[in-house]
Write a structure and sequence with these properties.
It contains no helices and 17 strands. It has about 220 residues and is mostly beta strands. It has one domain.
């Protein structure tokens, strides 16, 4: 997508433009599109219902050149940042899968996805996960999604929950650097974790792209 929930922009060579933000705002990442050929986004099983989603069309599902930075505590950039996407079901449901626009830059090619309750506008209690997903698509390509499957997680209509993306604190995966690409339409609130716990934030015109899928009564 040529248009511009948690996390930045840096400035490097190799066509990456990154500019760190100050204060409580998260860091964003920008790059050039690496391929003009867009692979269709992952198919969704006919047995699953979309509980939440902000993706575009299958061949333009998300902004593949801009997004929130994801960096484990041992990443080469020396900056820890994790991201979370809020969702509020419209009906009672059971979540069994999430598909998110999380992409790879460097380090171990893997990310942990989890589902949390809400606590005052940020992720609270862990409900499911972490599920470790490997072989993520490369940042700057579209439109392969990073998919995690869960045992059914009951969610309640009108209640906010969070999908989080993070890494282990040590060992394999803690050096991951990647990006959670943006959807074209902003949403509030959002949340970020710079290694010292989840914090809610507002004030940014972008949201993490993804879908929450499952079954309904």
């Amino acid at each position: 997508m040529k248009k511009m929930l948690l996390l930045v922009s840096l400035s490097t060579l190799l066509n990456l433009t990154l500019s760190a933000q100050t204060g409580e705002g998260p860091r964003t990442v920008r790059t050039r599109e690496k391929s003009t050929i867009h692979v269709p986004a992952n198919d969704v099983s006919a047995a699953l219902t979309k509980i939440y989603g902000n993706l575009g069309s299958k061949t333009d599902a998300y902004n593949d050149t801009e997004g929130w930075s994801l960096s484990g505590p041992n990443a080469a950039d020396g900056f820890t940042q994790f991201v979370a996407m809020p969702f509020t079901p419209k009906i009672n449901a059971s979540v069994t899968q999430v598909q998110v626009a999380v992409q790879y830059r460097s380090g171990a090619n893997q990310i942990n996805l989890s589902i949390y309750t809400d606590s005052s506008g940020a992720p609270g209690t862990l409900l499911a996960g972490p599920v470790t997903v490997t072989n993520l698509p490369t940042f700057g390509t579209c439109c392969t999604l990073t998919v995690a499957n869960f045992s059914p997680v009951a969610v309640t209509a009108g209640v906010r929950y969070w999908v989080t993306a993070d890494t282990p604190s040590t060992g394999t995966g803690s050096d991951f650097e990647g990006v959670w690409d943006w959807a074209p339409k902003p949403i509030y609130p959002q949340a970020r974790n710079k290694g010292k716990g989840w914090v809610g934030f507002d004030g940014t015109p972008a949201e993490s792209a993804g879908e929450v899928l499952g079954t309904t009564p």
